[in-house]
Amino acid sequence: MRVIDTSLPEVKLIEPKVFGDPRGFFFEGWNADRYAEAGLDFRVAQSNLSRSARGVLRGLHYQWPRPQGKLVSVLEGEVYDVAVDIRHGSPNFGRWTAAVLSAENHRQLWVPEGFAHGFVVTSESALFHYLCTETYQPAGDANLRWDDPALAIDWPISDPALSGKDAIAPLLAEIALERLPVYAP
To answer: Mean of the per-residue pLDDT values for the chain?
Structure first.
């Protein structure tokens, strides 16, 4: 596999080694030893799947306390995937990076603990997979506004379909510091 740096040092784009022939393909979607050798040494505590239609935007979500790191990929379709550094005190606080993930390119994005995450579906539908480092904690569930002007995320659509929770999410500047992860160099 190949690990590619993004504009945020902790967020990594991963291209697994894909073995294909006329019958189909095979690749390792997770191998603890190989990922640890590549500097991505984490424990998987939960696995999630979501299916969404074109134009659905999920995010920007995070969990605090007990943050979740996420290794995300697309099993069917295509998404524009975004990670935002929301760690109070980080030199990259409020900066974002994005990648196109699809069933065709087999790419994965590593979104570390302390980052908000979201994606928008750019294909007819998408089946999205998450490997999480922490179990979901309803009391720690949090989000921030997908179209926060201070973040200026360059989403590929302007009028996404949102959940009720995401439609009323606060701006990053409106979130109390104690509700944000803390940067630990």
So the answer is: 97
